[in-house]
Amino acid sequence: MRDELFARIESRTEELVELTADLIRIPTINPPGDVYVDCARFIGERLGARGFEVQYVRGEGSPGDSDRYPRMNVIARRQGSRPGPCVHFNGHTDVVEVGRGWTVAPFAGVVRDGKVYGRGACDMKGGIAAAIIAVEALVETRPDFPGALEISGTVDEETGGYGGVAYMARQGLFSRPRVDHVIIPEPLNVDRVCLGHRGVWWGQIETFGRIAHGSMPFLGDSAIRHMSAVLERFEHELYPHLDGKRTEMPVAPEGARRSTMNINSVHGGLSEGFDGLPSAVVADSCRVVVDRRYLIEESYDEVRGEIVDLLERLKRDRPNFQYNLKEMWSVPPTMTDRDAPVVRAVAGEIEAVLGRAADYVISPGTYDQKHIARLGHLHDCIAYGPGILDLAHQPDEYVAIDDLVASAKVMAASAWALMTGEVA
Question: For the Peptidase M20 dimerisation domain, which residue ranges apply (predicted)?
């Protein structure tokens, strides 16, 4: 059966490449959430024409959702000829902004030198295309398959996934008994099974001062100077403390096998975005946004507590220091067990297709597995797909055609093994 399935996928290589290019040509930039409806309809109409039951789900009320930018998701289901488990392939349709430095048109879907170029080629329209071809080839090869196959195209993964997988998980669309196994074709490299991701905690710290004339700063109190004291303690206390933490999670790359914190942005004093010279005032407010990534050995209370403790000590030590701490969002780390059926199925097919043992990794950043685990309470979930992780969000992003084909084979054979119970 495997030989027949793989031959069918190979015969559709040109179609796989064109499908990837077609998806790239739909510029679903997030934010703000451009042409989400167009991309959902493109996927839904293709699968609907092939016998899938198609449903469109708008993430109403989610962050960013509006009539101008509706958070439109699509989910397609093909029921088998007899009872069995459901295997679901989930891919996010949104892409990040283009940025500078491109040498090819970012939304042209350029095919050159065995690669498909464009924003989202790697992250993750190539993965969506490979999953679609994998499922279609499986249905054609084994129309009497047991169980069910699902494919979803969901939005907003690049900004947290709240209008996409999180919204749909709250509707029960990523939970048993509807779904049993989930594969997310994120670009973690074609020979890797990604078991999960580190945790994330985003917070905004605001310091306060008193406005005064900039020629007489002694009559005011600079919120920026107060924030500089926060940043100094970060530099000399918190960062060294985080550098000393290590994890047993197989996080890739190696530098992410420790706790990290990125200062995402700093805003203080006068607002920007105007022409002319600024007025002479002492800043009475300064805000910093921090992006903290943490390990499975750490707890939420520990992560937040380290920030609170630092700020409270500053409040005791520094005259007139006042602050406000606002949590923006957070999710815990997640890691699927290596003995889970979906892990064993995909790892076995990687070895069959590529001729080498699969590598097991944890993603340094989060992806939509977080919502499937915490909201759908479904833990038989991994990320596996074509593409090189380091190319994500870069100029001249691409996905190799050989990787598209190989990953489609792995996904199709894995789905068959999971539906039939033939997992080694």
Answer: 196-316
